[in-house]
């Protein structure tokens, strides 16, 4: 008898502690999820990181089911049993896994595209991470919870499938979205069996999933979503690039530490001489694709005008990235940019620079890439 009372009092004390410090525990778990991602992506392989993201997504789905199963049987929440403890910590686990999945997806999408192009989608990820804390009360509402969970499913699968199938095909993205939609619908149907009263919530979760599916595909085919799993490791504008053995020898202008921090570079060039853009791109094993360097010049009143599109093939698997370059001879002084793209026009990275016409070239620095 005393043992039962002791367990009950311990459970009530734990619940009181949780309620009292919920405003700190919830964002704390989100931060822990982000920190775990930072450590994970620095210490394990990409394939292992993707497996962890999928495990997080599965755990989040299980915890959401557990929460609703217990809420349908409210008396269990107050009992000092294993089920009661699970229900007590379930919101924290959901916050942790949501934070880990969103920040993990953000890491992949951030490094796989130019922010100037992919910023709308990246800001959506950042907003959801912030809202996971600020609007946590709304996150507990079933429609919001299920919508965010489906977005996470879509994001994780769209990150994982290109690695799994070693392909950048647009059909892989559509297929990953279709699989996530099937999983989402089956998940909601299973949740309805646990909580029949949720069948009457408006708007319906499946409707919100269809909207997310449509928006994600619109962003993808509008080239706003970056081309995962490619990522730009290194890029620069040089006066000369030579392929010597297994190395690339580049000659460029010396930049101070401050110049390297400021976006944009001034290239001093003489007309008739070549200007090179060198790029090193990470690609997973067995992925073969074509990279395009899209040279553009800014014209007053017209905006960015396409000058040339030069391409080369890469084959994935090299940890240091696959290297290539393009060059232009007929150029004018002014503002330029080169987009490193896929054949579909998805921007992996962007170099913006000024070309200033000079008679004598500055002293050039030799580098080995």
Keyword list:
369 residues; alpha+beta; Immunoglobulin-like; five-stranded mixed sheet; three-stranded antiparallel sheet; 10 helices; disordered N terminus; membrane; transmembrane; DUF2914; DUF2914 domain-containing protein
Overview of this protein structure:
This protein is an alpha+beta fold and 369 residues long. The protein has two domains: 2-221, no CATH class; 231-368, Immunoglobulins (Immunoglobulin-like). Helices cover 52% and strands 24% of the residues. It contains ten helices and eleven strands. The protein has helices at 2-20, 22-43, 46-71, 82-111, 115-134, 136-139, 142-165, 170-194, 205-221, 257-261, and strands at residues 231-238, 240-244, 247-253, 265-269, 275-282, 288-299, 303-315, 322-328, 334-341, 347-357, 364-368. It has a five-stranded mixed β-sheet with strand order 4-10-9-6-7, covered by helices on one side. Strands 1-5-8 form a three-stranded antiparallel β-sheet, with no helix packed on it. It has a three-stranded antiparallel β-sheet with strand order 2-3-11, with no helix packed on it. Helix 4 (82-111) packs antiparallel against helix 5, helix 7 (142-165) packs antiparallel against helix 8 (170-194) and helix 7 (142-165) crosses helix 9 (205-221). The longest helix has 30 residues, at 82-111. It is elongated, with a radius of gyration of 26 Å. Mean pLDDT is 77; it is low at 1-9. The chain crosses the membrane at residues 21-41, 47-67, 88-111, 117-135, 147-165, 171-194, 206-225. Residues 289-355 form the DUF2914 domain. Keywords: Membrane, Transmembrane, Transmembrane helix.
């Amino acid at each position: 008898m005393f043992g039962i009372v002791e367990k009950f009092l311990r459970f009530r004390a734990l619940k009181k502690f949780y309620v009292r410090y919920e405003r700190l525990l919830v964002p704390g778990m989100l931060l822990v999820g982000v920190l775990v991602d930072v450590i994970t992506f620095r210490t394990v392989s990409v394939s292992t990181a993707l497996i962890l993201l999928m495990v997080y997504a599965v755990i989040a789905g299980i915890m959401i089911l557990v929460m609703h199963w217990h809420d349908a049987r409210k008396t269990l929440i107050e009992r000092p049993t294993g089920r009661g403890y699970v229900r007590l910590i379930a919101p924290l686990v959901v916050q942790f896994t949501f934070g880990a999945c969103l920040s993990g997806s953000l890491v992949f999408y951030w490094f796989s595209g130019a922010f100037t192009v992919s910023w709308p989608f990246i800001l959506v990820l950042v907003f959801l991470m912030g809202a996971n804390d600020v609007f946590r009360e709304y996150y507990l509402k079933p429609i919001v919870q299920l919508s965010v969970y489906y977005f996470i499913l879509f994001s994780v699968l769209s990150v994982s499938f290109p690695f799994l199938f070693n392909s950048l095909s647009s059909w892989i993205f559509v297929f990953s979205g279709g699989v996530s939609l099937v999983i989402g619908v089956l998940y909601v149907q299973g949740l309805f069996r646990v909580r029949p009263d949720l069948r009457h919530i408006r708007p319906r979760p499946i409707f919100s999933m269809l909207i997310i599916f449509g928006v994600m595909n619109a962003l993808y085919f509008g080239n706003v979503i970056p081309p995962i799993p490619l990522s730009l490791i290194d890029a620069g504008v040089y006066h000369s690039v030579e392929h010597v053995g297994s190395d690339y020898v580049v000659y460029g202008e010396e930049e101070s530490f401050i110049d390297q921090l400021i976006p944009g570079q001034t290239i001093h060039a003489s007309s008739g001489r070549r200007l090179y853009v060198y790029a090193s791109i990470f690609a997973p094993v067995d992925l073969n694709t074509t990279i395009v360097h899209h040279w553009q010049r800014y014209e007053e009143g017209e905006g960015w005008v396409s000058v040339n599109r030069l391409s080369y093939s890469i084959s994935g698997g090299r940890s240091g990235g696959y290297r290539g370059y393009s060059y232009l001879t007929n150029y004018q002084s002014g503002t330029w940019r080169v987009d490193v793209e896929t054949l579909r026009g998805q921007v992996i990275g962007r170099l913006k620079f000024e070309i200033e016409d000079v008679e004598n070239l500055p002293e050039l620095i030799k580098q080995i890439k």
